[in-house]
Specification:
Blueprint lengths: L1 H28 L13 H5 L9 E7 L1 H18 L4 E7 L1 H14 L4 E7 L4 H4 L18 H4 L7 E4 L3 E3 L3 H5 L11 E5 L23 E8 L1 H6 L2 H16 L6 H11 L4 E4 L5 E2 L18 E3 L13 H12 L16 H7 L8 H8 L4 E2 L16 E8 L6 H7 L4 E7 L1 H13 L1 H4 L4 E7 L7 H10 L5 E4 L4 E3 L3 H11 L7 E5 L1 E3 L11 H10 L3 E2 L14 H6 L4 E3 L8 E5 L17 H9 L3 E4 L5 E3 L6 H8 L1 H22 L4 H8 L2
Parallel strand pairs: 1-2, 1-4, 2-3, 6-8, 9-10, 12-13, 12-15, 13-14, 17-22, 18-23
Antiparallel strand pairs: 4-7, 5-10, 6-7, 11-14, 15-21, 16-23, 17-21, 18-19, 20-22
Family: In the C-terminal section; belongs to the glycosyltransferase 49 family. In the N-terminal section; belongs to the glycosyltransferase 8 family.
Pfam family, one: Glyco_transf_49
Subcellular location: Golgi apparatus membrane
Amino acid sequence: ARLLERDVLASRVREVEEENRQIRLQLSQSQGLAAQPERANHSECSRSPTAEKCELIHVACVCAGHNASRDVVTLVKSILFHRRNPLHFHFITDTVANQILSTLFQSWMVPSVQVSFYDADELKSEVSWIPNKHYSGIYGLMKLTLTKALPSNLSKVIVLDTDITFATDIAELWAIFRKFTEKQVIGLVENQSDWYLGNLWKNHKPWPALGRGFNTGVILLYLERLRRIGWEQMWRLTAERELMSMLSTSLADQDIFNAFIKQNPVLVHQLPCFWNVQLSDHTRSEQCYTEVSDLKVIHWNSPKKLRVKNKHVEFFRNLYLTFLEYDGNLLRRELFGCPSQLQHALEELDEDDQCYDFRRERIMVHRVHLYFLQYEYTPTDDGTDVTLVAQLSMDRLQMLEAICKHWEGPISLALYMSDAEAQQFLRYAQASEVLKNRKNVGYHIVYKEGQFYPVNLVRNVALRNVNTPYVFLTDVDFLPVYGLYDYLRKSIVQLDMANTKKALVVPAFETLRYRLSFPKSKAELLSMLDMGTLYTFRYHVWTKGHAPTNYAKWRTATTPYKVEWEADFEPYVVVRRDCPEYDQRFVGFGWNKVSHIIELDAQEYDLIVLPNAFMIHMPHAPSFDISKFRSSPSYRYCLTTLKDEFHQDLSRKYGSAALKYLTAQRNI
């Protein structure tokens, strides 16, 4: 049955794709339409036989925190998948959700989609006086303030909870506004549980409601009319009156909406129940449809979410999971057949260039979802805090628990993953006791696109989202010595890094053993080095990468010492957060860290080796990109070309001071 349901969904996917293709074809043939596809009032659009598909649809959502920000992405995907109209999303957010969603939409670059944000903090005073028992807290009351929060010239909006999944084009819901009578101002679906009937348990006393009441997970708000009748004053008077006996709300804004409708039934337009099929326990949702194909909107309004009981829950769950793991890059398709800025940039590239794929990667814009999991950080008072910065993909997940055990300070990790892999990571993190208990780790998803691993772009995402004054730039397959976090903070003070340009080098070693008794001190490490259990990092394949660290001197050093830059030097360093970013032209294997150290040296950073710091590289299978480098002459040719272009850019930035890097490279 599950396979059959997936086949039905796959068939629907193909149908929608074909419908969208036909619509784009019609629209592209409409004279002048391609000029400004996002303007809902474009004159040619209004005269088009497909004018309704040009109308701009407004959607509002209240979203606060890390978890709700993840949920709203699935909602948006389901809307974008079916839509044929330009959209304008209005998000009422806290600071966290604003940062996450603004970055996501800027990097997603979905055509014919506008996004606006409104500060929930500025609205809290409007509803903070209302006692509320609902788990959504104060944000569960924010929908009452939309006439004030949203622009005064916005006349209509669809308001959605974050736990909604669309199974049809949202334009069908928008069209219901035309069915409102002159007095109707709110469109709602009847509540599908017995909550407002007051018979769920003994002494159950719900807020007053009209009949079964209405559910506010999906609302059509006629803002213009609501403002005209004095909505803000009316809902306040309703809430004040009922709170005298009810003392608090149980279902947040829904209780107040229902009490208002009870007093003013002429103002509500009842929507067909398939526009909000409510999957909470004890609902009558199965009476809303005879076939699952009749469904329009699914509402996961039970705290149990996907574990809720329902005869067709497997179908609903599969539909939800499809959008949860759906490749968001596919939703970048052009609605009206107009090329995007990205497409224009790609068209300017020479497809006959042997390095076309490399150059394409450099202008590719990857979707980024910051703080995928809960994140908490409290700055230190002494201004010496340092964040471990690294990047990884799915095949390095097993390193996360070990790193968290070795490093107690804040961590910023960028993970290069597909939408489906991001959900696998979420399940992995939620099942790990170690990761669940660490709130000072920022996980930032960079979604996969293209054939290369954009390693430096991913590193930069982790670097940009650091909250400490200093960063430890490392790779995820290295484990730092226990206590390195505290040692680095002391070194930062001793070496006056706040007032000088220094890059503190953490010497790198490696083991070929998958099981290692990790050395707890420098003395233990030196003993293991002498016994052949450990080696200096890459001494047998790439000595130049770390030779300038001067391991012989490090063995006996008791104080920090300065080393000079040499060609191909790529140490792991601690620097101020305002250091240069990694050069994103280098993708896959080769020169991605070397180029960064060159930039540090060009900006006159002193390279200082720390005498009691070290890190050990743990063994793993070779990456796909290093295999391509070794097997492909074209890959190696393009890497050489990119190096030459990098040196040219260095010369433009640093003048004659950059000549030493080019000379050193030619002497290799």
